[in-house]
Amino acid sequence: MNIPQTSFPRIVIVGGGFAGLAAARALENQELQVVLIDKHNYHTFQPLLYQVATGGLEPDSIAFPLRKRFNDVENFYFRLAEVTKVNSEENLLETTIGSLEYDELIIATGSTTNFFGNKSIEKYAMEMKSVPQALNIRSLVLENFEEALLETNLEKRLALMNFVIVGGGPTGVELAGALAEMKKGILPKDYPDLDIRQMKINLIQSSGELLKGMSNGASQKAEDFLIKLGVDVWKNLRVLNYDGETVTTNGEDHFKTATVIWAAGVKGDTIDGLTTECTVERANRFKVDRFSKVEGYENIYAVGDVACMKTEKYEYGHPMMAQPAIQQGRLMGKNLVAKYTGKKQKSFEYNDKGSMATIGRNKAVVDLPKWKFQGVFAWFVWMFVHLFSLIGFRNKVIVFMNWVYNYIRFDRETRLIIRPYKKKNKFSFASDE
Amino acid sequence: MNIPQTSFPRIVIVGGGFAGLAAARALENQELQVVLIDKHNYHTFQPLLYQVATGGLEPDSIAFPLRKRFNDVENFYFRLAEVTKVNSEENLLETTIGSLEYDELIIATGSTTNFFGNKSIEKYAMEMKSVPQALNIRSLVLENFEEALLETNLEKRLALMNFVIVGGGPTGVELAGALAEMKKGILPKDYPDLDIRQMKINLIQSSGELLKGMSNGASQKAEDFLIKLGVDVWKNLRVLNYDGETVTTNGEDHFKTATVIWAAGVKGDTIDGLTTECTVERANRFKVDRFSKVEGYENIYAVGDVACMKTEKYEYGHPMMAQPAIQQGRLMGKNLVAKYTGKKQKSFEYNDKGSMATIGRNKAVVDLPKWKFQGVFAWFVWMFVHLFSLIGFRNKVIVFMNWVYNYIRFDRETRLIIRPYKKKNKFSFASDE
């Protein structure tokens, strides 16, 4: 892989998401060689992907070039590659661009969509874990309306304008809200010759409440907001299948639709080669101790979504979100610095700063440890926190300008089909470009 | 195609570029039905494509959703489709989404890259006439450096860092300049473990001067600027072939390169079905009269790049640029309004407002009818004119913010490989994602 051998110990980090980035930052300018490997050359700010998918933000504003992040860092190497396997006996990482020896290996590969083994849903439903996937959703939504315009068969037209979002977590809620705002403010203007009232947005949640893990107040208010925006919220309903045409459920309700967005679960995006005993059944994450060390290994660590660190409070591991990932990554880096400078390592304790979700214009819910609130102020807090967390000054400015523009003009202007999505569902007709 | 039949005459415009858009605007809110057809759902501001290709701007900031442009216009219809054929005897336009009758047909299909029949160049070279193509160049350039980093064979590494731009018109000059600025300011920081001095940027022009059509002063100054930025300018050199590995020329110089960007010519992107006599050999444009009427037809018009309107001053038709397209489109619309309101139609006279090109930071050349100047002030004029010409307030703001940021920070931050370019050249190795 063409990385120079030095006298410094080599720390290899796989993944430039929240956890990997935080670890790399904490390892900066030490007597250590740091190699960061990612299959993309950019960091993705996943919490705003849904705005890319719904035409509110350009993809480039929520992505940040990984090389730039480390421009001024000594002994740092970035490599664009996919990791294929860990050979832990020889301390060797195998990748698409050759293998690399490591002294310490930090796995921060994050998570991927969990279809729970359903191949048909996997084939036909859309997912939203990466920028290209969000862009695919953006293209598909717009293509649907272009097609609905031409469709004379009512049943097919309704299916093209029927959107089913499976999963009532933050992703599902935020996406449903954003689609509802498009329905309200933008689509009737863009498609005056189409009856946009026929558009349906269904949010299906298998349990009895949205935003599980947040307070009851937040959960209830989010539901109220969604209903007010015209979203059909289905609770206690489990999706059984989607065959590219119909969503079947365990209830009496079925949905004929051209678009299913699957936000019902994620699972750890683990790396091959580690003994299976160390991976936890639930959500496919690596079982780690309080120092993020993967069970059964001495110099292999996992942080972020891919790690399952069981504690008294989090018996199934921490929530697969940005905050635990950032905190685990940062401590991981600090602990390795401590290890090589002979200092004491600290065990991880999650500092839950709270969680929040936005539903639409002036509508958000925020749970802070000591204060829970919803509505306009929550919405401003949500915006401030997300703007502040974005990496890069340019990105902050561009996102801010877009938000101000969208707010004042009731608009979302990046509704461009830059690369058409090649449909797999059964409502497609000649849409090749 | 599901367009209502009304008592109003139906004007069909093919293409939402500069010419088509100007025509549609001029036809607004008249007793006419206007149908605009484009294969993209957005207008592309082509003069800034090179900045998308070199990481200076996000694609969404130079594209504008066509539907939004006509949100408040009565009797206006947009359809996303590709036109396959004109059936002029039945006044019927055939498209990928069905056929459509027209009373008046305006062809504003623009131009496409002209490879002058060389299939090998067409297969291996990059072109830059659309947003996806510009994004492909952006991905390829970055992928090349990621690969160069790994390449131990010196000859191959040099080829990966060797860029050949064919064509010394505005596109070639601006692209060469932008690449040279990347070489200077960005790549050495992003790739500290690569010797960026080995990067070469070659601009090959078949004639004896760059920016043909501009003044001698502009042409000479542009060349000076490029040389100062480290571009190798080759004049009076004609490219004969590129086989994915080596560019051969009619001179002694050959270029081993992984990247050829073909900016050596465009040709009209004509529509099938019109008798061949009406298309002009040179550049494949439709021969039109001073009222943009295609020779041999009564209700078919061509405007912009695809039209060849011969005048005393422009014996081969007007230059294939934004200005003539906008002016022809606007007059076309006005003339149709005149026709249907019984007013007199005007014959086209091109008002040449001048031309300009930017080479890099503080470096541009401007030819106004009565004033020709180069340097810092020209650069500000260039920026002001382009910002002002961009469609959409949001786009203007975003582009402006990006330019300010890039200027102050000597940076271009959108260097993201969002969708990897699948290489066709012979230097590719496993880069599939």
UniProtKB/TrEMBL annotation, chains A, B:
Spell out the SUPFAM superfamilies in the cross-references: FAD/NAD(P)-binding domain
The Swiss-Prot or TrEMBL record describes its family as follows: Belongs to the NADH dehydrogenase family.
Q: Which GO molecular function annotations are given, in alphabetical order?
A: NADH dehydrogenase (quinone) (non-electrogenic) activity
Q: Which residues form the FAD/NAD(P)-binding domain?
A: 10-329
Which catalysed reactions does the entry list for this protein? a quinone + NADH + H(+) = a quinol + NAD(+)
UniProt-listed InterPro entries: FAD/NAD-bd_sf, FAD/NAD-binding_dom, NDH-2, NDH2-like_C
Please tell me which top-level EC class this enzyme sits in.
oxidoreductase
**Domain (External alternative NADH-ubiquinone oxidoreductase-like C-terminal) ranges:** 353-408
Task: State what protein this is by name.
Answer: NADH:ubiquinone reductase (non-electrogenic)
Query: Keywords assigned by UniProt?
Result: FAD, Flavoprotein, Membrane, NAD, Oxidoreductase, Transit peptide, Transmembrane, Transmembrane helix
List all membrane-crossing ranges: 376-393
